[in-house]
């Protein structure tokens, strides 16, 4: 029964890990953009908000319990100390792993160690986290070492536990608060209900609360999982200090809001204020009220609920500060992709699996029916046997891992698996038709410009005109992702933006349907621009002759050059050539300002057209 | 080098025609492919963009302005970078060194003008932003955008010269300008200055940003760190000592009580048992 419960939980964790494994591969091979929904406006997302911000805070139990046991000499809490230290250690390792996912260039993560930037909060956080993880490792090391042949090392390390604990508390105080300081420089991003000059203080106080809640929560969870005797009496005595910390936190928060004069914002009932109240109620007000009402005195589920609320509430606080509260200000909506969410879950799953590994193999929790102070030598072997996963467990876990990985493969967009690919845009609708003029000529009906407009394309004519070797011009000049060259690659003049021709106007002027034949003279051809009568037939006087703008040939041009094109064509080409001949670095005479000394000559609407289209 | 002597850019909204030569020149200089006329926002392949802003009093009265890295005198991005990948050079431009970068993107979060862009689709991504043509400027040449502009809408010079120029422009045509040089004092001063015919927030110079350099917000807290660390450590040591001492005193007193009792009992039983009380 007990084993089955453990096996089920582990199975789920391994499954999540399997999915994460594949997502991780995609992230490292194809870049952050392929699996995350991060944007230039929202460069930090769930991986920073949850994995790092909340991760560090969730691991606060280590230093809080260590302070309680070593500095306040509350010896009765000692049985909770080892799991708290272990959670903290694994939590910090998880933060580091989560950070590796998020960093764009994770291979440079070592740099803060050697290139000091004392003005950066992140630099300070990096150092504290590195040092504190080391401290935690040293604090925890005696557990796996005791009873082994390195028992001496364990005894040696234990002698330094007090200085280590004090160093750990110092480092924790610094970086728990500094995670809040990270956002001091971004007042524009964080909503005023969260942004405060005392963010570091709020982060620190809430970390203490969260530490106590985590210790409670994980003790209850492991008791449930392994069906071992609960430590409720101890946990109940943690509730009072927890309530004090929560009320202190709420007090500081409200006094700060009032002092900054933004308290009214909390009553405006925008979604931010709703989020604020939700977060405050879940993280501090409700749990504190539950504790004070005496609900926790009996222990049991009430403890789990209180601790769970605090955990959820403060995790939300970190995520809110790191991003959610600023969503409307960034102007871009960010919601984590499923890949981001799974990866965060995967990191947590790995940490939990590691936690269970240590719990099953070493004396993390004091053996039942023994004094709290652990005797130096082990029933280690016994516990090892007791909790060793049977082979069946390992096998079903591996299977779930593989299933998870396969599922992730199936769900990932192809770009994430195979790398970002160019979208292919082959010419569509290629269909052979016979020319209606009875010449027997074969035409192709193609959407040559991928513009959803079919054109009759005289393929054979092109071959004849360009010669046999010219196949490559259309079929191998392709841009990446294109299968064939678009028509406009050669016929650029047909697609200039300043097309003056208005079909409707001509229809009206030429008397409706009766006027069709005026331009579409040959009834055997599809009515198209390509075979219509050229503009010049009717509008010969409209194009100036004898200058640098070539007069469109009578049979091919259907566009009148615009005034701007005409002038630019007349003047600028020559000026540019002249300037170049004279060795001018910048063709000054060809610059706009040479002819248009006053920028106000330009219609603002023209400028708008240029930038917005 | 003093901030006044550092290289800077002055952009004058009233003189910009929106011709886009600056964007074109910039992309050409950086070797970016793409159509400059289609640039709507800065991106990993466009270090500056032309945007429109309308007169708050007359929405039809539209102007174009350039969006680009402001090269702040005290840049947030440089101050937050934990590895020193961003650097405010002596010359003025804020430059980026990809080899040092670890990709934390704190610079992107911290920038009050939302300037840095990221190569999201690269497995070896870099931060992309205007470098104020550091290579050209260190040779004494103007930036590509300033060279391309024929209206004096974008000009290049030392910050001092440009502030002087801006003031004289405002003085000469007081009707054409809102009498404020955007970037002179905002966030401690920027090296890209803006002149506008009307007050603007769209340019990123949100009045809420204030005139303190952004790194000050952080430094106010960071400078307290050694103090906090020592206080925390000392408090914990003191607590440990106090509780230890209290426990010791309590034990001692308890022991004395027992001794006193024993002594009393011993007295009653006679003086030959006295020694046992001291055990």
The helix-strand sequence of chain A is: HHHHHHHHHHHHHHHHHHHEEEHHHHHHHH
Proportion of residues in extended strands of chain A:
under 5%
Helix fraction of chain A, binned, reads 55-70%
Catalogue the unreliable spans of chain A: 370-392, 493-498, 544-551, 553-559, 603-613
| Radius of gyration of chain A using CA atoms only | 36 Å
CATH architecture of the largest domain in chain A: Up-down Bundle
Q: Largest beta sheet of chain B: what is the strand line-up?
A: 8-1-9
| Major sheet strand order of chain A | 1-2-3
**What is the CATH topology descriptor of the largest domain in chain B?**
Alpha-Beta Plaits
**Count of individual beta strands of chain B:** 9
Q: Helix coverage percent of residues of chain B?
A: 25-40%
In the CATH scheme, the class of the largest domain in chain B would be Alpha Beta
Largest sheet of chain B: 3 strands, mixed
Oligomer category? heterodimer
Brief write-up:
Chain A is mainly α and 613 residues long. Chain A has helices at residues 2-30, 32-35, 46-58, 61-71, 78-102, 111-114, 121-140, 142-145, 151-159, 161-181, 199-226, 232-260, 271-292, 301-322, 327-330, 338-361, 380-387, 391-411, 414-418, 459-466, 471-475, 503-509, 516-519, 535-538, 563-581, 592-595, 604-612, and strands spanning 428-434, 442-447, 455-457.
Textual characterization of the structure:
Chain A has four domains: 1-35 and 391-421; 46-389, Formate dehydrogenase/DMSO reductase domain (Formate dehydrogenase/DMSO reductase fold); 422-495, no CATH class; 563-612, no CATH class. Helix content of chain A is 59%, strand content 3%. Chain A has helices at residues 2-30, 32-35, 46-58, 61-71, 78-102, 111-114, 121-140, 142-145, 151-159, 161-181, 199-226, 232-260, 271-292, 301-322, 327-330, 338-361, 380-387, 391-411, 414-418, 459-466, 471-475, 503-509, 516-519, 535-538, 563-581, 592-595, 604-612; strands at 428-434, 442-447, 455-457. A three-stranded antiparallel β-sheet of chain A has the order 1-2-3, with no helix packed on it. The longest helix of chain A is centred in the first third of the chain and has 29 residues, at 2-30. Chain A is elongated and about 105 Å long. Chain B is α+β, with helices and mostly antiparallel strands and 279 residues long. Chain B has two domains: 3-213, Alpha-Beta Plaits (2-Layer Sandwich), CATH 3.30.70; 225-278. Chain B contains eight helices and nine strands. Chain B has helices at residues 21-30, 76-80, 106-110, 134-138, 144-148, 159-172, 215-222, 225-269; strands spanning 7-12, 49-55, 58-67, 86-88, 94-96, 117-118, 127-128, 154-158, 192-195. In chain B, a hairpin with an 8-residue loop joins β6 and β7. Chain B starts with 6 loop residues before the first strand and ends in a 10-residue tail after the last helix. Chains A and B meet through α1, α2, α4, α7 and α10 of A and β2, β3, α2, α3 and β6 of B.
């Amino acid at each position: 029964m007990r084993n089955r419960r453990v096996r089920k939980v582990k199975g789920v964790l391994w499954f999540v890990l399997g999915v994460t494994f594949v997502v991780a591969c995609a992230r490292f091979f194809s870049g952050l953009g392929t699996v995350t929904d991060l944007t230039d406006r929202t460069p930090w997302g769930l991986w920073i908000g949850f994995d790092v911000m909340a991760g560090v805070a969730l691991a606060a139990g280590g230093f809080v319990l260590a302070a309680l046991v070593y500095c306040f000499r509350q010896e009765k809490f000692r049985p909770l100390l080892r799991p708290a230290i272990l959670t903290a250690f694994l939590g910090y390792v998880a933060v580091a792993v989560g950070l590796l996912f998020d960093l764009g260039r994770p291979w440079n993560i070592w740099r803060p160690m050697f290139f000091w930037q004392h003005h950066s909060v992140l630099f300070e956080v990096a150092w504290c986290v590195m040092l504190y993880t080391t401290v935690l490792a040293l604090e925890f090391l005696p557990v796996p070492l005791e009873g082994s042949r390195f028992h001496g090392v364990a005894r040696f390390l234990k002698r330094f536990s007090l200085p280590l604990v004090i160093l750990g508390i110092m480092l924790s105080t610094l970086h728990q608060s500094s995670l809040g300081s990270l956002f001091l420089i971004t007042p524009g991003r964080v909503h005023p209900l969260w942004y405060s000059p005392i963010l570091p203080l709020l982060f620190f106080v809430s970390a203490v609360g969260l530490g106590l809640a985590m210790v409670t929560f994980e003790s209850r969870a492991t008791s449930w999982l392994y069906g071992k005797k609960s430590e409720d009496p101890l946990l109940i005595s943690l509730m009072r200090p927890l309530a004090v910390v929560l009320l202190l936190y709420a007090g500081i928060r409200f006094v700060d809001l009032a002092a900054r004069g933004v308290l009214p914002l909390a009553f405006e009932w925008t979604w931010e204020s709703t989020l604020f109240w939700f977060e405050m109620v879940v993280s501090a007000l409700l749990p504190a009220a539950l504790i004070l009402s005496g609900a926790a005195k009996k222990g049991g589920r009430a403890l789990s609920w209180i601790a769970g609320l605090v955990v959820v509430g403060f995790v939300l606080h970190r995520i809110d500060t790191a991003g959610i509260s600023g969503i409307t200000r960034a102007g871009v909506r960010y919601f984590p992709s499923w890949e981001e969410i799974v990866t965060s879950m995967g990191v947590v799953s790995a940490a939990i699996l590691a936690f269970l590994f240590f719990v099953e193999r070493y004396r993390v929790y004091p053996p039942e029916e023994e004094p709290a102070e652990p005797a130096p030598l082990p029933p280690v072997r016994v516990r090892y046997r007791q909790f060793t996963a049977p082979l069946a467990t390992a096998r079903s876990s591996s299977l779930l891992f593989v299933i998870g990985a396969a599922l992730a493969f199936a769900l990932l967009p192809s770009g994430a698996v195979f790398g970002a690919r160019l979208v292919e845009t082959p010419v569509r609708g290629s269909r052979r038709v016979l020319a209606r003029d009875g010449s027997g000529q074969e035409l192709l009906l193609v959407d040559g410009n991928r513009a959803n407009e079919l054109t009759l394309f005289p393929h054979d004519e092109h071959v004849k005109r360009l010669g046999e070797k010219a196949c490559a011009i259309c079929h191998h000049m392709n841009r990446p992702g294109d299968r064939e060259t678009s028509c406009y690659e050669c016929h650029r003049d047909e697609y200039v933006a300043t097309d003056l021709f208005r079909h409707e106007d001509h229809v009206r002027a030429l008397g409706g349907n009766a006027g069709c034949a005026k331009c579409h003279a040959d009834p055997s051809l599809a009515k198209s621009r390509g075979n219509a009568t050229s503009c010049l037939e009717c509008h010969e006087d409209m194009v100036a002759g004898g200058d640098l703008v070539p007069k469109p040939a009578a049979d091919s041009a259907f566009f009148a050059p615009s005034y701007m094109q005409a002038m630019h064509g007349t003047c600028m080409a020559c000026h540019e050539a002249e300037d170049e001949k004279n060795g001018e670095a910048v063709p000054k005479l060809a610059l706009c300002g040479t002819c248009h000394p006053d920028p106000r000559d330009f219609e603002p609407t023209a400028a708008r057209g240029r930038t917005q289209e | 080098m003093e901030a006044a002597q550092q290289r800077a850019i002055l952009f004058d909204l009233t003189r910009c025609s929106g011709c886009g030569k600056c964007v074109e020149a910039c992309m050409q200089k950086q070797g970016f492919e793409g159509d400059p006329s289609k640039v709507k926002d800065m991106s990993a392949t466009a270090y500056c963009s032309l945007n429109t802003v309308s007169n708050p009093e007359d929405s039809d009265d539209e102007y174009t302005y350039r969006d680009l890295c402001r090269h702040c005198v005290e840049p947030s991005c440089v101050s937050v970078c934990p590895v020193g990948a961003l650097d405010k050079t002596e010359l003025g431009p804020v430059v980026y060194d990809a080899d040092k970068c670890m990709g934390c993107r704190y610079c992107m979060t911290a920038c009050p003008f939302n300037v840095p862009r990221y190569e999201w689709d690269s497995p070896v991504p870099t931060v992309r932003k205007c470098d104020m043509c550091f290579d050209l400027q260190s040779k004494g040449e103007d930036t590509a955008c300033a060279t391309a502009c024929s209206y004096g809408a974008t000009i290049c010079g030392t910050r001092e010269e440009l502030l002087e120029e801006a003031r004289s422009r405002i003085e000469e045509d007081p009707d054409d300008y809102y009498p404020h040089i955007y970037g002179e004092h905002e966030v401690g001063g920027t090296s890209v200055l803006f002149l506008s015919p009307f007050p603007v927030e769209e340019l990123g110079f949100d009045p809420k940003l204030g005139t303190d350099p952004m790194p000050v917000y952080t430094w106010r807290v960071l400078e307290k760190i050694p103090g906090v660390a020592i206080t925390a450590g000392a408090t914990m040591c003191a607590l440990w000592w106090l509780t230890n001492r209290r426990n010791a005193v309590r034990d001692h007193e308890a022991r004395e009580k027992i001794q006193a009792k024993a002594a009393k009992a011993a007295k009653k039983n006679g003086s030959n048992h006295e020694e046992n009380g001291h055990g």
